[in-house]
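Reply to dn_fold:

You asked what the input looked like. This is it:
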Amino acid sequence: MVEPRTRRDWAVDVLGFLLCAGFTAVTLLDGLDRQLAAAPVFVEAALGGLAVLGWWLRRRWPVGFAVAAGLLGVYSVSAAAITLLGLFVVAVHRRFAVACLVAAGCGVVSFLTPLIRPDLPGPSVAQGVLGVACVAAVLAWGMYVRSQRQLAASRRARDAAAQELRVTQARQLERDRIAREMHDVLAHRISLVSLHAGALELWPDAPPDEVARAAGVIRESAHRALEDLREVLGVLRAGHGDDVPERPQPTLADLPLLVDESRQAGTRVVLDCRVEDLGAVPEAIGRTAYRVVQEGLTNARKHARDAEVSVAVRGTTADGLTVEVSNPCPPGAATAVPGAGAGLIGLTERAGLVGGRLEHGRTATGRFHLTAWLPWPA
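and this is what came back:
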């Protein structure tokens, strides 16, 4: 796929074309001043014009352009000058061995011209040395530009790989955290199911045989589900080195406590909660909403320490749950997302896993706004 040409590419093309045309014009004027025959001047103009037009093909065929200009330069002095530009292009875009071969050809051109053009004087020793020096300088300059481009490309690739690694790590950490929460909630519930199923099996009401058989099936299924869940989460949590389950994770009902803790830590928080019953929000959705507010308050404490933070929570089962956290951006902040953004990446992953979405960025009024919409099933 061919990349679109930028303004810089067009500027280089036009500048190089004008430079090639200038070489040809100066050569023709010199030939007219020396009152050369019409035929050599006409051939000089024709070959020089071909070399000038070939400049537009150098991006696709840099070696072909340089070789063609060199062959034309055996007769045309202007084309020989354009050959140096072709050598530079080859040195920038091709490997060193190819550039050296083209450079050697450029050095031979100036010594072949007197054999083809007896009307032109042969180069002196000083002119020959100067020509070789020019060829070497153009080759060195082109190789330097090539090395700088390769270094810049390597840095861009390294930065892109590092950013991708950070994103992957952030997502994996968030998945591990979700896995721990799944263990705390689901394992607890399944244990209760197993316990009550065992009680039903021990003390059936009626009829005894059918209830005992149904209770046995429930208990066996619960145990299998619990074991499967432990195996899956054991793989997800590999490397944490802790076999003790963590405490139950918070839900949206714990939001007032989170706000109070932030206020006690010195953060000015304005809470606007328009959900009548926070406990009615499903635990998975409420947990995600809680984490959104928690991350927003954490970012505000880190990057806008003395600013007032606005927290708004609203929603219904019909419209879903919307959580907004907003605070003024710190003075001199140049980026839309303060900090490394790993926490926000994890929140985006978490919101997507429950079927919601998360947006964050700097607004036109100079505030950092974090908004999450989460589904609220009836």
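Residues 313 and 323 are 5 Å apart (CA to CA).
Hope that clears it up.
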